[in-house]
Structures are given as C-alpha cells and as structure tokens.
C-alpha cells in the first residue's frame, strides 16, 4: 500500500502539472485529487488500480440527494454513499458512511421535494415573433407572477438553446462546453450514419440532428432548462451516473425511445441502427456511466458508442469500456478559452476508426494502423502503431520497448523514461528527508476532503 500511495502521490503531482495547463480549475487541489481518483494509478504489477471504486448498490434503498440515489463508493477499504453526479461536497454535501445505522432518506422519500411543481409541458407550438424566456422559472410561457428578468428570444433561437443559455460553469458537476463548428460537423456526420441517436449531455449535436430527417434523436441531460425548449418526446431530464430519469423514472420517454423500433423502410440505405453519443463531465465516474450505457444497449438490443473524454484518461476508459478505441481527433469547444483550437479531449468509439475520416489539413491516413491520425504522429515500426496521444512528437525507447514523448529521456535509476526534472528516485530521497513516513497518505486524504 505504501508503494501505491507513493506512486499515487507522484502521479498526482504529475497529473496536476500536466492538466493545469489545460484546465485551470484543476489547480485547486480538491479537483486534482478527484481527477486522480477517477484516473486511477498505473503500475507494472497491476495495469490500473482504481483509487476510488464504485460498488453495486440498490437505488431503492440508497440515500439520495437532489441528483437522485447516491452511489456506494469504496475508497481504499472505506465504504460510503455519496452523490452520483457531483464530485464537490461544497455543492452536494451528501455523505453517508456505509455502516450508519440511522436510516437516510431515499429518492422515494425526497422525490416530491426535489421535483418542480410544474410539469414538463410542450414548448409553444404556434410561432410568434419572439418569446420571452425566464431562466429562473425555466419557462417560455411565462407565469404572470414571475418577477425575474426575462429574455426575448426569436423563433429560430428556440430550436438551439445552447447558443444563448447561460453556461453552467461549475466544472465538477456540470461541464457545459459546446462543440466548435468543426467538431459538430464531424459528430453530425458520424451520427447521420444511424437511424436512432441518443445524445447524453450533447445538446448541441441534438439541436443539429433535429434537421437530419432520417435520424430519430433524443436528448438526455442533467440540465433541466432544456425542458422549456424540447417536449417530453425528445428530451428527458436525466442523470447518466445513476440512470435516473428524474420525473418518470423507468417509465420516461427516454426508455421508450431506446426500446422503440426504427423505421426500416426509410429511404436512406445502409444505415446503422443505434448510436449513443455521450459527453460526460471529465470528473465523472466512468464505472457507473458504463453500467448506464450497458442498460441502454441491452434495452435497445444493439448500439454503438461515442464517448468524449480526455486522452490522458485512456487507461480508465479501457477499464470500463474495453470495446472502445481512441480516435486521434482533437475535440474543440466554442466556449472554452483553451480548447478552441486544440484540446486533450478525444473521441472513444466502437465505430471502425478506418471509417472516421478526419480533416485533411491536420490529419493523415495511416495505412498500417488503418485509421486517421494527426500529421505529427509517425508510425513506429517497432511498436507497429502511431503512438502519439497528445499531438506531440514521440520517439521509441529500446530499453522501455515503447514509444515515449520526445522530451523524455531514459532514467537508469527509475528504469523508465520521464522528464528530467521528474525523477521519482531523486524525489523519493527528498521526500523521505522532508516528511516522516506515512505523511503522503495523510496529505492525500486531507486533500480529498472525503
Ligand atoms: Zn447530489
Ligand atoms: Zn421567472
Ligand atoms: Zn500508424
Ligand atoms: Zn515505438
Ligand atoms: Zn525508456
Ligand atoms: Zn528517474
């Protein structure tokens, strides 16, 4: 365990260093540790040790918060229930030790308090010149009692609320970054190969798919505001981490959509059946998400997946979605300062990579790998792969028998390659002189706050 924690700590620091340039929110230690815990720790002995595991639990008896039934976590042997959707206890404080005797309130107990009084009604059907939308009430047809500021919106905007809704900027719970035009184009292209597309947390793609006649689509999102714009048949207020449709549970339209037959007689030939396109917050736990996706696929009887997630979480993705392969395309976001032109975010999918053609100004086809890769990616004969993950040059290290970042050098002491200043051997010595043994564990635990 000491070894693991030691590694964890080194990896934690390395992770913070690597990620902070991309994601300013990670500079605060809490989220860094959250990232670490979902990232897991690699070692030679064990391909991936997950620091925090999610264990199976019964949603009917589990304690609940505003996000529905909690999940049962196991952090290095300590079991507790916590919020499924929100990784920040300042925002969602639910924490119930597994051994707690006093019964906690379940979703059945609190559902009526959490759900809004207003039903999910159809948005206005007869177009007017413009509507007024109240974000606080989450309504277009305004209640005369409402005293909030109301924004006028045109009929055109009604169909694409992601272009004007204020961004929910809390990165730990909801990460509302919308894809750039180029990325949208690629995703819509891929989605158009299917008859039926379920968009989980991808409202901007959903908005565009409304205009693709042969695709039947449904949006599932944890942001309830979309109810004001999309009726019950096409939108479900949904938490993908505990598979909860907030209003009607398993009787919601989402499950009807998933189980529905597609129109085989439609003109477009050669279409695939069903696609799930999911863009979770990067702090989201992949284990529970994969359970939800499996449930959806077994209900649908088939289905392919596109998961949008950072390349540095590849090990985590492999653990929970072994069937998905990483496409080298760098996802871009129109409303993220640092991810407008490139990003560490990739598409993980079981659509054959050879069929995902990427923009030729930046990508090329590698015949040996049978997939499109970034231009900087050079095929390594020894690894028989295009190994670069981050669109930087890689070189082959014969001692490690693998490709590594070109800035790294092989370290005799550590018996592996790393950045010169990140020598674990040297750092280990420094640490043992600075702190008494065991402090790493304590420090890590304090930072997590759980
Ligand atoms: Zn919660
Ligand atoms: Zn209002
Ligand atoms: Zn290659
Ligand atoms: Zn190589
Ligand atoms: Zn090496
Ligand atoms: Zn070293």
UniProtKB/TrEMBL annotation:
Keywords: Cytoplasm, Methyltransferase, Transferase. It is found in: Cytoplasm. It holds the Pfam family N6-adenineMlase. Residues 430-450 are annotated as: Disordered. The keyword Transferase applies. GO terms for molecular function: rRNA (adenine-N6-)-methyltransferase activity. One of its GO terms (cellular component) is cytoplasm. PROSITE patterns: DHHC. It comes from the Eukaryota. PANTHER family: RRNA N6-ADENOSINE-METHYLTRANSFERASE ZCCHC4, ZINC FINGER CCHC DOMAIN-CONTAINING. This is rRNA N6-adenosine-methyltransferase ZCCHC4. The lineage of its organism: Eukaryota, Metazoa, Ecdysozoa, Arthropoda, Chelicerata. The gene is LOC100905429.
């Amino acid at each position: 365990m000491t070894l693991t924690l030691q590694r964890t700590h080194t990896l934690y620091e390395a992770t913070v260093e690597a990620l902070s340039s991309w994601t300013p929110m990670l500079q605060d230690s809490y989220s860094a540790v959250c990232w670490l815990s979902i990232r897991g720790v690699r070692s030679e002995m064990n391909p991936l040790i997950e620091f925090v595991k999610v264990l199976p639990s019964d949603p009917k008896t589990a304690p609940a918060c505003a996000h529905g039934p909690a999940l049962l976590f196991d952090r290095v042997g300590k079991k507790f229930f916590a919020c499924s959707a929100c990784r920040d206890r300042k925002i969602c404080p639910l924490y119930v030790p597994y051994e707690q005797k006093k019964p906690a309130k379940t979703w059945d107990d609190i559902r009526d308090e959490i759900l809004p009084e207003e039903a999910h009604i159809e948005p206005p059907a007869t177009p007017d010149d413009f509507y007024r939308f109240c974000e606080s009430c989450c309504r277009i047809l305004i209640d005369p009692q409402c005293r909030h500021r109301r924004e006028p919106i045109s009929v055109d905007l009604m169909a694409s609320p992601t272009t004007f809704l204020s961004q929910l900027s809390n990165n730990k719970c909801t990460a509302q970054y919308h894809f750039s035009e180029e990325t949208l184009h690629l995703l819509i292209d891929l989605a158009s190969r299917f008859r039926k597309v379920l968009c989980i947390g991808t409202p901007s793609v959903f908005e565009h798919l409304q205009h693709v006649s042969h695709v039947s689509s449904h949006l599932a999102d944890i942001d309830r505001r979309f109810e004001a714009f999309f009726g019950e048949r096409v939108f479900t207020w949904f938490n993908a981490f505990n598979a909860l449709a907030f209003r009607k549970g398993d009787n919601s339209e989402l499950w009807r959509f998933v189980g529905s037959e597609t129109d085989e007689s439609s003109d477009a030939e050669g279409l695939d059946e069903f696609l799930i396109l999911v863009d979770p917050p990067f702090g989201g736990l992949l284990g529970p998400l994969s359970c939800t996706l499996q449930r959806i696929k077994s209900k649908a009887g088939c289905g392919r997946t596109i998961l949008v997630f950072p390349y540095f979480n590849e090990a985590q993705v492999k653990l929970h979605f072994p069937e998905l392969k990483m496409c080298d395309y760098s996802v871009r976001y129109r409303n993220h300062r640092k991810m407008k032109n490139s990003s560490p975010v990739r598409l993980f999918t079981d659509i054959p990579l050879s069929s995902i053609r990427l923009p030729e100004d930046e990508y090329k086809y590698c015949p040996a790998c049978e997939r499109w890769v970034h231009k900087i990616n050079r095929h390594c004969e020894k690894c028989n792969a295009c190994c670069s993950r981050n669109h930087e040059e890689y070189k082959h290290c014969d001692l490690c028998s693998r490709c590594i970042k070109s800035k790294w050098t092989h370290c005799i002491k550590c018996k592996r390659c790393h950045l010169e200043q990140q020598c674990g051997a040297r750092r280990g010595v420094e640490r043992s002189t600075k702190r008494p043994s065991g402090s790493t564990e304590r420090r890590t635990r304090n930072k997590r706050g759980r």
